[in-house]
Design a protein that fits this description.
The complex is a heterotrimer of chains A (207), B (102) and C (411). Chain A is built from nine helices and no strands. Chain A is mostly helical and 207 residues long. The longest helix of chain A is centred in the first third of the chain and has 27 residues. The N and C termini of chain A lie far apart (66 Å). Chain B has one domain: Helix Hairpins. Chain B has 102 residues and is mainly alpha-helical. The chains are: A mainly alpha (207), B mainly alpha (102), C mainly alpha (411).
Chain lengths: 207, 102, 411
């Protein structure tokens, strides 16, 4: 089977999973069809990208998959009616942290990429699966049959203006806001100082 | 409306995948990518609970925004440390950085 | 979720199910909204080459079709007919995906641009009136940065990688004055929605109230798209075309088209943010006139950018970084602070309206004059500082030369 044929079949499989998920959500939980399809699509993008991040050997591809996964999370934020946070996620992660990771990957190329990718893969896989199982059990116990109250669904959602006002409000979030900016300044200075390439003049001066 | 536990399930799955990345990978930068995945899983959790329990308050979105800020700062400093360690030891494997000397 | 606009139109055509009507409405809307930039880019490339030629005292392409109007079609056919090469050791998926992401990140911006006035909500013909329109624009534009980095890496070519590094450093640095310059219209309009910003300029354009911010936006957007004098990205005569060395044929065509479209998109955004968008004479009675006004304003800005491109020399990467970090960033931060201060003081003192759209020309004059005075004072101060530093740098250089001469002539 040629490669393009194989790719097309994979695409059809993913499409079938997404549409099947939408139908399933529609029948089991009375979720509108397109909402269900969108949720399954973004969920698959997120989780598929995450699995690819932790399994791929090529680190630059891992960065790209990380950005794909984070883009899927931005989509989930839009579904959860937090568009400001979705835009901030895309701007901060894909616009800046992706570049940071790319530079770090390029500055730390090791010649021994033939060594093992994982250390103790089976043990850690078992640990992750057990963690997921435990979390699922807790989620099912507490929120399995929980439905949000009617007026929650109809309430007006706080928007960006409220967030902006709260961030500078004396009885609001002004203190965490200022601390966060202080933290960012300290992190920026620290990162620059640590990663600076000390050239020979400074090395001689330091003796 | 999509039931809340589906969002929590996605968040738990992402968190577990991130944990696997942190524990199992032999490259420092890949470990940091796993940490980023875990932080984003927490963010999905926060926003899902914000939407389904108190969407009129602003605390949920603000908390998630602060988590993004801190994740960015931590990624920057962590990668700077990895680059600095690579310069002196020529290796990014966390398991090999086990002696204080050098 | 109710069914308005295009969705209602599709339903009136006979599709009963609101969800499917909504989906079809979305698809049609997407095609319409992205058709505008795609049709514009055909003429843009020709206009670019003609204007460049006239400034350089030659005629420009005039063979393909009358007055060279079919030149872009000829270019397109040439690029399509070229062989589709992928370098042997390149990362195939990333190599092929990078031009697509770069082009997509530009066309996505057009989803939030208001074209003309409309009686129904949201008040304009546009893709979608996001509450966070300005932030959406910045976020989507930053997607293009990652696409360029990917292109540089996936080409498996050291020159491409170095070119991509420089480009990404440039793009990431110039996002800061861009965002600060974008804060000023948002402050004036009290909202990040582009329709609100357009309506807030009903009585006074923001370019008269904040010329320094408009200049910052213009300079940063020229740098963001790699236009002269910041075109060390492509540097056609120097660094062997930077990150798109290994790209040929239609993939190069996509990068090419994406760049020109990005410049025009930034011109349209400048027109919306600072020059009033589709506002103009008779824009409500005859909505299509609003579209014409927007086109005229955007074309003026595009022409200025073309004029600049063919006139000024190219800057070096260290000059570009110096310019950004030591000039643009401090000036834009101080500009935002002073604008916020003056605006708030004026609003508290009653001299400025709180909601700009509902005031009048006379009501906007005091605050406009105050802000203009602030801008003029800032410009005077900055220019004297720049002149002083230039003079002292020249004097230091002359002193160094005389020292060298003295030490060479002495013992």
């Amino acid at each position: 089977m040629s490669e393009s044929m194989r790719n097309f079949l994979i695409f059809l499989l993913i499409l079938a999973v997404v549409i099947g998920g939408g139908v399933l959500l529609n029948s089991l939980f009375s979720v509108p069809f397109f909402l269900g399809v969108t949720f399954v699509a973004f969920g698959l993008i997120t989780l598929g990208g995450a699995v690819a991040v932790v399994t791929t050997r090529n680190l630059f591809r891992a960065t790209i998959w990380l950005m794909v996964s984070l883009f899927g999370i931005a989509g989930l934020f839009v579904l959860l009616e937090a568009p400001f946070l979705a835009a901030v996620q895309v701007l901060v992660y894909i616009g800046a942290i992706a570049i940071l990771f790319t530079f770090a990957v390029m500055l730390t190329r090791s010649l021994t990429q033939l060594k093992d990718r994982y250390n103790r893969p089976y043990a850690t896989l078992a640990a992750s699966v057990l963690l997921f199982a435990f979390l699922t059990w807790v989620i099912w116990q507490v929120w399995g049959n929980w439905t949000p109250s009617g007026d929650i669904m109809l309430a007006t959602i706080s928007d960006t203006t409220d967030l902006g006002v709260a961030l500078v409000d004396k009885e609001g979030l002004v203190l965490p806001f200022e601390l966060a900016s202080l933290l960012l300044t300290a992190a920026m200075i620290g990162a620059i100082v640590i990663a600076r390439d000390v050239d020979e003049d400074e090395k001689e001066k330091r003796g | 409306m999509i039931p809340l536990w589906l969002y929590l399930l996605v968040s738990a799955a992402l968190f577990s995948i991130g944990t696997f990345g942190v524990l199992a990978r032999r490259n420092g930068v890949a470990v940091l990518m796993g940490v980023e995945l875990m932080l984003n899983a927490v963010n999905i959790n926060l926003i899902a609970f914000w939407r389904y329990m108190s969407p009129t308050e602003v605390n949920g979105v603000a908390f998630a925004a602060f988590v993004i800020v801190i994740a960015a700062a931590e990624a920057a400093v962590g990668l700077a440390i990895i680059i600095s360690v690579y310069r002196s030891r020529h290796s990014v494997v966390p398991e090999e950085a086990d002696m204080l000397k050098g | 979720m109710d069914c308005v606009g295009l969705c209602a139109f599709v339903q009136s055509l006979g599709v009963a199910d609101p969800a499917i009507a909504r989906l079809i409405g979305l698809i049609i809307g997407g095609v319409l909204v992205s058709g505008v930039p795609l049709l514009t880019v055909i003429f843009l490339i020709l206009v670019e080459r003609k204007v460049a030629a006239r400034i350089q005292d030659r005629i420009g392409p005039n063979r393909a079709g009358p007055f060279g109007l079919l030149q872009t079609v000829a270019d397109l056919l040439k690029l399509l007919a070229k062989e589709d090469i992928t370098p042997a050791a390149a990362d195939r998926v990333l190599y092929n995906a990078a031009p697509l992401v770069s082009f997509a990140s530009v066309v996505l911006i057009w989803a939030v641009i208001p074209f003309m006035y409309a009686d129904v909500a949201p008040g304009a013909f546009m893709g979608v009136d996001l509450d966070i329109g300005v932030l959406y624009f910045v976020a989507v534009a930053s997607l293009g940065t990652l696409a360029i980095m990917t292109a540089g890496w996936a080409s498996n070519n050291k020159y491409a990688l170095l070119g991509a590094f420089r480009v990404v450093a440039l793009l990431v640095s110039y996002e800061i004055p861009l965002v600060f310059a974008l804060l000023v219209p948002v402050m004036f309009a009290g909202s990040m929605s582009l329709v609100d910003i357009t309506n807030a300029q009903s009585h006074m354009w923001f370019i008269f109230m904040a010329p320094v911010a408009a200049l910052m936006f213009f300079i940063s957007s020229q740098a963001e798209t790699g236009r002269a004098p910041f075109d060390l990205i492509e540097a056609e005569s120097e660094l062997v075309a930077g990150f798109n060395i290994e790209y040929s044929g239609m993939k190069f065509g996509m990068f090419f088209a994406a760049e020109f479209l990005h410049v025009f998109t930034n011109a349209v955004l400048f027109a919306i943010l600072y020059m009033g968008g589709f506002l103009g004479v008779l824009y409500q009675q005859l909505p299509i006139l609003g579209f014409v006004w927007l086109g005229i304003k955007a074309s003026i800005i595009y022409f200025i950018s073309l004029w600049l491109r063919n006139t000024v020399p190219r800057l070096r990467i260290d000059q570009v970084m110096n310019f950004n970090w030591f000039f643009l960033v401090p000036v834009s931060i101080v500009n935002v602070l002073l604008t916020a201060l003056i605006l708030k003081l004026a609003q508290v003192a009653g001299l400025a309206p709180t909601v700009f759209a509902e005031s009048s020309l006379l009501g906007m004059l005091p605050v406009t004059l105050m802000l203009l005075v602030k801008d003029v004072l800032m410009i005077i101060y900055v220019m004297t500082r720049v002149a002083q530093e230039g003079r002292s740098a020249r004097q230091a250089e002359q002193r160094m030369e005389t020292d060298l001469l003295a030490s060479a002539a002495g013992d």
